[in-house]
Write a structure and sequence with these properties.
Elements (H helix, E strand, L loop, with lengths): L1 H31 L5 H17 L2 H16 L15 H17 L7 H10 L26 H16 L5 H10 L15 E2 L7 H4 L2 H20 L4 E3 L5 E4 L4 H10 L4 E10 L2 E10 L2 E6 L14 H11 L14 E4 L2 E7 L17 E7 L8 H16 L2 E7 L4 E3 L2
Parallel strand pairs: 1-2, 2-4, 3-4, 8-9, 9-10
Antiparallel strand pairs: 4-5, 5-6, 7-8, 10-11
Helix pairs in contact: 1-2, 1-3, 2-6, 3-4, 5-6, 6-7
Length: 410
Amino acid sequence: MFLVKRDNFNKIYIIKGLIIALCFSAFIYLDYFSIEYKILNTILGLVSLYFLLKVEKQALFFIGFFIGILWFYWVGISFQYYDLTYLSPLIVLGFALTYGVIFYFIALYDHPIFRIIIISLLSFIQPFGFNWFIPELIFINSYFPISKEYFILILALIYAFIYLNKKLKVLALIPLFLLYSNNEIHVDNPNIRISMPQLNVAQDSKWLKNNLTNVIEDNLKLIDKAIKEKKQLIILPETAFPVLLNKEIFLSSKLKEKSKDIDIIAGALYLENNQYYNATYHFTQGQIEIAKKIVLVPFGEEIPLPKFFVDLINDTFFNGAQDYKKADKPTDFIINNIKFRNAICYEATSEEIYQNLNGVKYVIATSNNAWFTPSVEPTLQKLLLKYFAKKYDVTIFHSINGSNNYVIRP
């Protein structure tokens, strides 16, 4: 009888964990399906935080477990391109267990104020440097302003609502209404005509030698089209040219020549001193500028472990390939007398790229999302970029392979 009751309790905690995780993750999937109701996102966000503060501590592990899956199941998709598809379920389980443990610590000391503190600090807990879990992101498409300070205030007001007596609960609700933000879009367009052609080159064919000529020729045609349309800048995605572009003398010369008619931003690999970089090339007036990536993708571009384990993992799973190298600081391009900060995919959602902007109001972000499509990865990335655009008051031009391009304004 005791075992039956215990099993039932476990099932209840699992069900509660799943329901709360669904509420906490709903904003991603609503955006993915283009369901745009601020009131719905606002209510679901408040409900999820309410139960995070109130639910039994035994359910917290399961909340984190399901959040790890709902937010990051897509990470395993990319492993098929390394012929490591069998690892995908283990990757998903790894994320689930990691965030399960993280959420379990919310109730390490079972007091609501302790929960508020830990929930507020969750965005600073970045397993292996992976920084895409930002709790306040749940309000990015809501009626509330989006910032760490407002998020903590909302948690405090929910706490007050839970623990004040019935007559005083309304006192906690009034400030919530005062937090209303209309989130009006600030239109800020640089004085430059920009072309951002949509690329959808499949990841499993992009790097094939017999397809390389077609990929390059298609890119050159897009540049010629932009020149014909009198554009001043064309932005092509991350690794749009799947080559070591600084070693392709003929292709580089061709791009230099075209850059006399239009500035060209394009992603490609860069080789220097036997070290490989994920880079952005800026061709302008017959010259080349190189922006090397400063924040690498954990377990995608670098293994964030001691060297012994790095060598072991690369030898075992990646045929001895070496990690990419990274630059020390961000790169700014000056185009038509306007300064643009360069950001390549993952680093566009990292704090480091927005440090020392020194008046820079525009960011050129390039990505190759073909690694992860179809999935919610492009949606989560876009929501994160909206967060950083608001936080740092910048306009982001995002050129992508494998999902839709867009411009995000603060």
